[in-house]
Design a protein that fits this description.
mainly alpha; 15 helices; 2 strands; 1% strand; globular
Length: 313
């Protein structure tokens, strides 16, 4: 019980700290934090499926893209209000993801990863050639309605969305359902032998992951006010999502959040020195070293430090 209250106190401190940030940092830093918030949402979405069940997805921008393009088309081409288009976009992500990717859950390991990667590449090609009058083709779409104006309002909206998702998933994964999902990643056959429906558990993980991805994608493009297939389905975007989850600590929910902020600010720090794609080699190397010597990520470093402090006391 004391450990539970300790965790809740840390979450409360995070909420209070985030609310105070607009009074402590510049607007430029707030904009960086906004991108970190959305990356955290995408990384948590990936972690719910891949970090828990062990089914590593290389096609997560496929889910994000469904939500982003659905709300973009509805608002730009059909003048649907944003408050209606975003729920429709989330629903489309869950339905579309289930129809296309759920059959892939019947395969395992590298085959699953390759199939999901193929779907991401397929959607990248389709949005450019099928009905470019709707999708914008290779140029994408601009002039999309935005939900907020200004760095402060954008910060509060993205922070609220990120914290609601993070805390909800953290609480969910501490239930028996979360334990069962983690057990699939450890030994799927044992879970099946215990009488639990592995198919239902994986389906739940996939639906939850798709829900978060669609929601994050819809809010993200309404923050940017534009959408471009080259940026959304870029391999660096996929790489950043996965590395954020791994370097922070996959399977923890808190880890992807920490990893997202770490990578976002690392990229901003390196931008003046490495303005091109070379930045990705730097944090890719950091991620590789972290994964080799501390596979459980930054969260494990914090836990080891706290354990050492307790021992010293």
């Amino acid at each position: 019980m004391s450990l539970r209250w300790h965790h809740l106190a840390l979450w409360a401190a995070l909420v209070v700290g985030m609310l105070l940030l607009p009074h402590l940092v510049s607007k430029g830093t707030l904009r960086t934090i906004i991108f970190a918030n959305y990356l955290a949402i995408f990384a948590i979405s990936w972690d719910v499926l891949s970090g828990r069940t062990g089914y590593v997805s290389f096609g997560h921008p496929f889910l994000i893209g469904i939500g982003a393009y659905t709300t973009a088309i509805l608002t730009k081409r059909f003048d649907v209000p944003v408050e209606i288009s975003i729920p429709l976009a989330v629903a489309a992500t869950m339905v579309g993801g289930l129809i296309v990717l759920l059959p892939a859950l019947r395969i395992k390991g590298s085959y699953f990863a390759l199939v999901t990667l193929a779907f991401m590449e397929l959607m990248y090609q389709l949005v450019q050639v099928i009905r470019p009058d709707l999708t914008g083709g290779t140029r994408g779409m601009s002039g999309l309605p935005t939900l907020t104006r200004g760095a402060v309002n954008g910060f509060y909206l993205s922070t609220a969305l990120m914290l609601v998702i993070a805390i909800s998933m953290w609480l969910l994964m501490r239930t028996r359902l979360g334990t069962a999902l983690s057990a699939i990643g450890m030994n799927e056959e044992s879970v099946r032998g215990s009488g639990l429906s592995v198919t239902r558990l994986k389906t739940f993980a996939f639906i939850t992951s798709a829900f978060i991805a669609g929601l994050g994608g819809a809010f993200y493009i309404h923050y940017l006010g534009s959408i471009a297939p080259r940026a959304l389905f870029d391999i660096n975007f996929l790489f950043t999502i996965i590395v954020a989850a791994l370097i922070g600590g996959a399977g923890t929910i808190v880890g992807p959040l920490i990893g997202a902020f770490f990578l976002t600010f690392l990229l901003e720090f390196l931008r003046p020195y490495l303005p091109g794609a070379e930045r990705y080699f730097v944090y890719g190397g950091i991620a590789l070293l972290m994964y080799m010597y501390r596979p459980k990520g930054i969260v494990a470093l914090f836990e080891a430090g706290l354990a050492k402090l307790r021992w010293l006391r």
